[in-house]
Write a structure and sequence with these properties.
This protein is an all-alpha fold and about 190 residues long. The protein is built from ten helices and no strands.
Amino acid sequence: MNVTNSYPITDEILEEYRDVIKSDFDGYRNHITRMLNFCHYLLPDISEEDSKKLQIAGAFHDIALWTHDRVDYLVPSYQDCHQWLDKHNLGDWKEEIQVIIDMHHLISEYKGPYVKLVEAFRKADLIDFSLGLVKNGVSRSFIKAVKKAIPNAGFHKALVRFTFIQLGRNPLNPLPMMRVKNIYKS
């Protein structure tokens, strides 16, 4: 499988937020691009429509870190996504993309509606977050190739910065975006 350096829908959406994301733009874009490569590796026969859904979810999954300046960002991230979907006449995708975003930090395996895309996205995010230490079914050589082709560009440093901000705001709840249980049942 070849590494893809750009996903057009994601890039188009992110351009709308460049001025808000500022110096973290390249890091966030690259994080999403690496994730999408891992998603497509996990779903080799993915349809064009499902790929578009993952690209949209990717663009919005962490966006409220910047748009709402908060670490408990899941709800405002999919709310921002809902607005974008409505604007582009894709409202039928709201529920599915919301579940993808909302469950992408679930600690355990996701079981519920839209499981195929949710699980691939959840696994891909963890692969990138862990810098490839967690493989989740993606080959070591592909992870290495993706990391080589698409640099970190400070993404993990930004996560550390946001974590310290959250610790200052609420030291008793340092990781409010983590999900320990599935809130969607099949």
